[in-house]
Structures are given as C-alpha cells and as structure tokens.
Amino acid sequence: MAAVDDTTIQTLKVESPAREAWRMFLRNKSAIVGLVLLTIIIVVTFLGPLVYVIDPFDVAWAPFTPPGEEATVPWGTDYLGRDVLAGIINGGAATLAVGASAALITIVIGVTIGAFAGFYGGFVDEALMRVTEFFQVLPPLLFAMVLVSLFSPTLTTVAIAIGVVSWTQTARLTRAEFLKIKQLEYVTAARSIGAGNSRIIWKVILPNALPPLIVSATLIVGVAILFEAGLSFLGLSDPNIMSWGLMIGSSREYIIDSWWAVTFPGAAIFLTVLSVSLIGDGLNDALNPRLRER
Amino acid sequence: MTETVLEVENLQVEFKTRNGIARVLNDVGFSVQRGQTLGIVGESGCGKSMTALSIMGLVPTPPGRIAGGQIRYLGEDLLAASESRMRDLRGNEVSMIFQEPMTSLNPVFTVGEQIAESVRLHEGLNKRDARDRAVEMLKAVGIPAAERRVREYPHQLSGGMRQRVMIAMALACRPSILIADEPTTALDVTVQAQIFDLLKELQESTQTAIIMITHDMGAVAEMTERVLVMYAGRVVEDGLTTEILTNPKHPYTKGLISCVPHLEAEPKPERPPLTEIPGVVPSLTELGTGCPFAPRCNEVLPKCRSDMPVTEQTGPDHRAACWALDAKGAAA
Predict the structure, then answer these.
(1) In chain B, positions 64-93, which contact chain A (CB-CB < 8 Å)?
(2) Can you tell me the distance from the alpha carbon of A274 to that of A223, in angstroms, rounded to the nearest whole number?
(3) For all residues of chain A together, what is the average pLDDT?
(4) Which site from A34, A134, A248, B28 is most exposed, i.e. has the minimal number of CB atoms within 10 Å?
(5) Is the ipTM, as predicted for this complex, more than 0.90?
(6) Domains of chain A from N-terminus onward
(7) CA nearest to A250, candidates A266, A234, A268
(8) Closest-CA residue in chain B for A208?
(9) Domains contained in chain B, CATH given
(10) Residue B82 burial by CB count (10 A; 0-12/13-18/19+): exposed, middle or buried?
(11) What is the pTM of this model?
C-alpha cells in the first residue's frame, strides 16, 4: 500500500477549497463579465478624478446642455450647469463606499447574532430571534429614513442606517447554517480535543458556514447601493458629497428637459448593482457543491 | 504494578424525551489500568457511546443529564470538574476517536492544521513546532509521504487514511486514555486489521489505556484484555476477555458470541450459517421492573420478568447479572 501511495501522491495536486472555488468561478462567463465591469467601475471611480479634474459642484457650462453638443462637457450639464460626467466620476466613490460599509455592518451584526442564536439555542436563540423579528417587521426604507433624519445625514450615518435595517436576513441565514453544522461530527471531534465554545463558533463552524454567507454578502452590497441611492434620491444624504443618488434626486424635476442628468447616474447604479449580482451568482455556483455539476 | 487511570462507579445518565425520562445508563461501573485495553460491547443503542461521552464530559445537556455516580481520572472526580478543567483534559489526557472518519474531520482545514490545533491548544506550541509535531504524528500512524499529506484536505484521503489522521489527532498530546468509539466500523476489513495493529503498536510505545467500543466480538478478541458487555444501559457481564469468550455466563453474551460468522465452520442444525439474537433492544422509556433482556432471552425464567437480576461473582475476575445463573447453580 505504501509503495502505491508514494508514487501516486507525487502526481496529485494539492488544491485548497478556496482555490478550487476560484477555478470554478473563472469558468462562469457571466461572473467574469461582472468582475470586469466592477473592476472598470472601481478604477474609474478612484483614478477618474485624477484624470478628469473638474469639480462636480462647479458650474461648468450653460445649464441643460445636452451631451455631445459641447466638447468641454461631453455628457452635458444639469439644471445648474454642473458637469454630468464629473458627477458620475466623483459620485461613484460615495456610492461604493456607503454600499460596501453598509454591507460590512450588515454582515457583522447578522453573523454575530445568527451565530450566537444558532449555536447556543434555547433561551438565547428565542431572545435573539424575537429581536430579529422586531427588526424584520419594520419597513426598512422608512426605518432608515427615520434613523438618518434623527442624526445628521452624513455618509457614516447613512451606512449605519442601512446596516441596521438590513441585517435580519443574514442573521437568519447564519443561524440556519449554525443549527445544521453544530450537529456534525467534526464539531464534537473538535470539542473532544479541548476546543472551547468561542473557538468552535469562530474557527470550526463559521469557516464551514461561509460559502452561503459570502454569496449573500455580495448581494447585500448591491442592495445597499440601491438603498443609498434611494435615500439620497429622497434628499437624505450628505448634500456636500456628490453621489449618483444625489444627482438623480436633484435633477428629477427636470427629467423632461434634461433626460441625461438623470439617466447617466441611473445607468451607473444599474451597472454597478448588475456587476455585483453577477459576481454573487458566480460565487454561488462556485461555492455550492450541488450546483457545480451543471 | 499497574496504575488505575480511570474508574467509573454507578454512573447514571438520563435523557428527557417526549415519552418521559429515559435512563440510558444505569449503574455502569468499571475501571481501566494504564496500558490496558478495555472493550465495551453491545448492540446499537445500549449505551456504549453514551458511556464514552460521559467520560469526555460531552453528554448533550439538555436533554441529557448525568444523574449520579462518579468518574475518576487518576483520582480526580471528572463530574465535579469545571468546564475549563475539562477542556484542559480533553485531547490532552483523555482523547477520543470517532466512528465515522468521513465526517469527523473538518472539511475546510488541512489535516496538518487539525492535528496541530490540538497541540497548540494544550502545549502552546508555535505554528512551526505544531506543524512539525503534526508531520511526526502522521509518520507515527504510518501515513506515507507525511510532509506532503500534512498539507492535504480530508476529502483527498481515503477512509483508512482519515481514521489514521483521527488517531494522530487524538494521540498528538500523548493522552493517558484513548476512547475509540467503533473506530473500524466504517472501514474495509483489511484496513480494520491495520488500524488494530496500529493501535496496539502505539499503545505499547505510549502506555495509553484504550477503551474500545465495538459491537464486533472479533475485535474484542483481537484487541482487549478485559471486556464489558452492556445491554439497555446496564452492564450485564464483565471480566477478563479470555474468560468471557470461552465461558460466557449471560445469555446475551452467548448470543453475541454465536453471532460472529465463521468462515470455515460447516453450517449445522445447531449452527446455522448466520445466527441472530431475536428481537430488538427495547425502548428505554418502556422498561419494566424485570431484566430488560428477558423478552429476547432463550433461558428466561418467570422471575426474570418481575425482578432485576443482581450482579454476581462467577469467577475470580468475572461477573454477570442473570437469574439463570442462580437456577443453574442451585441445580448443580
């Protein structure tokens, strides 16, 4: 037996689960489209302002200039004469930052509550799930509006508000994974070598619960971006920082006269959320062993 | 002079169920000496695994509860020990290998990381030293190309290999007691023999006491010095393995022994090709006052159905709990 193994092992490639998932991800065409799209959006957002140096709040040309008419403002101007292209380039940072940090807050709250509820069960589970249900029955947009208007509308409060209203799904998903995984034999085996509760929660169960959580995290980024756009559309965002939602919100009354001032930021939001969703879908296929065979 | 590492006395474990309280362990007692192997045999559901979990302090509570008795490790009462003390003992002094090597390893970590984990928890070794120990352990359990295997994930190993990894994990801190819960049930017969040899070899070099839980009388004969036969949460017979295999007293033990299929024996009327003990293990919530084995026993007496048999000394190192012994004793 030993002789056979020695020779075969040399040809066997050691591949970690993460690597294998990455390989599966790269096989998925739409996921790659999403990844390329998101990369372009991120590059434009962070390098664009260095190349296209125009303040998005400055009056750049006559108001209501349509795109393509004037070379200095290739994508036209809005009702105040502000450059739409400069707005798109500069507004991405706020939108992406709020989307990402809101998703992070969502995940931290959701995973912590879900993990404790699922792992400890009993009274802890009951109490935490009632809290979760309380947050779940509140209309999220209204609740977020209340939170943002209670405090001053800055990017931080917007991100926190979005995080606080949308963690319930993540908590339920994490709890379900924990309930399933905590009964598996390797958890008992980990206990039998002397691992304590916190070690078992964070180092044994959580890594095994990650695949569905990663997928839902990507989708949460998309939802958070939409949420941020919605809030700034309603005027509940920092008016001193350009964002795509703010652009749509401020130009919405002039949509008949200048369609471009609303459509371009709308398209930017659409493409960003689409790219994030495609990546999430690709990750789902890559991380879910049942879907791999398709 | 051998040293007693583990003593269990009058252990009682109860489980709350919808149909009332089920007493899954009743008056279980035994002791294990350093370097010795004790076998615990019985059918599924007779309390073997629960005995193991009780020693590890891993009885799921609730619904389970240790209702009484004592478990002493080198004189220390484990039932009174704090959770943090138990964490120190688990893996370090008392280890366990599980029945299913396929599901007892964490799929997202390499086998090396998992072996190293136990050493890092108990001996505070750094990453590099822990990894070296993991390689050393993999070599000790006979895994070829250990330096390479240490970086592999459980799904890349065969069942026998994984059980070897489990053994390496359990023995990494050189515990005094190793509980093997049906370590070979999920493995091929040829691999079974290898695992038994490995366990015996490691036991000789480390003087670890092994508690071997099994339902296979062949494994008992192969591995153990002493044996404990359990039925419905009770010890029905215990003593030296050689003594029990050649001269079983309890009808249940006789039944278990006759169930071992013989390759060479010609099927005869008194030994059909496959023997079985008729019936199934009774539900623990439905036990009456009599001997739990009475409904399936072929030597049953009227007394068996009403009174619980008392454990009696039947030899210098051999005890059994059966009313039929008395009847025979009186007749003889």
Answers:
(1) 84, 87-92
(2) 11
(3) 84
(4) A134
(5) no
(6) 22-62+69-291 (1.10.3720.10)
(7) A234
(8) B108
(9) 4-93+175-331 (3.40.50.300), 105-173 (no CATH)
(10) exposed
(11) 0.80
